[in-house]
Amino acid sequence: MYDCFRTIDEPSGLTVTTTARPDGVRVVTLVGDIDAATVGTLEDALAPGGRLVADLSRVGFLSCAGVRALLQASARGEFAVVVGGHAVARSLQATGADLLLEIHPRVGGAVAGVTPVPEPGREA
Questions:
Q1: What number of CA atoms fall less than 13 Å from residue 47's CA on the CB side?
Q2: CA 108, CA 99: separation in Å to the nearest integer?
Q3: Where are the domains of the chain?
């Protein structure tokens, strides 16, 4: 698998696991609810920027504060979001963030979306 990962288990109910992939993409997997009590954890996980995928496929609730954190992360670098549940998709649609964020149904597609494609004739 991948060499580097870190898990933060917050007593508030949000678990964050960060996996550094060999291609330079960080995948941040979140489990739980993102609301006023946990949005700081999300912001901390997304703060480094760079090529980043936020996997929200196991998030049960996404507040407006969470949507704001996702939008701020997308402004800092190459960023994609994995959405699996209706509640998260609904929050993104209701706020219009679905039109601003790169959204994917699976992690593989999201990683491909933030991984640069080498130009023909050039090495990666």
A1: 7
A2: 21
A3: 6-112
Say how far residue 61 (Cα) sits from the centre of its chain.
14
Look at residues 32, 9, 7 and name the one whose alpha carbon lies nearest to residue 18. Answer: 7
Query: CA triplet 71, 72, 75: central angle to 5 degrees?
Result: 90
Structure tokens given for 41:
């954890």
CATH number for region 6-112: 3.30.750.24
Mean pLDDT by 10 residues, the chain (124 residues): 52 84 92 94 91 96 96 94 94 96 96 78 58
Tell me the pTM.
0.84
d(CA 18, CA 21): 10
DSSP one-letter code for 100: T
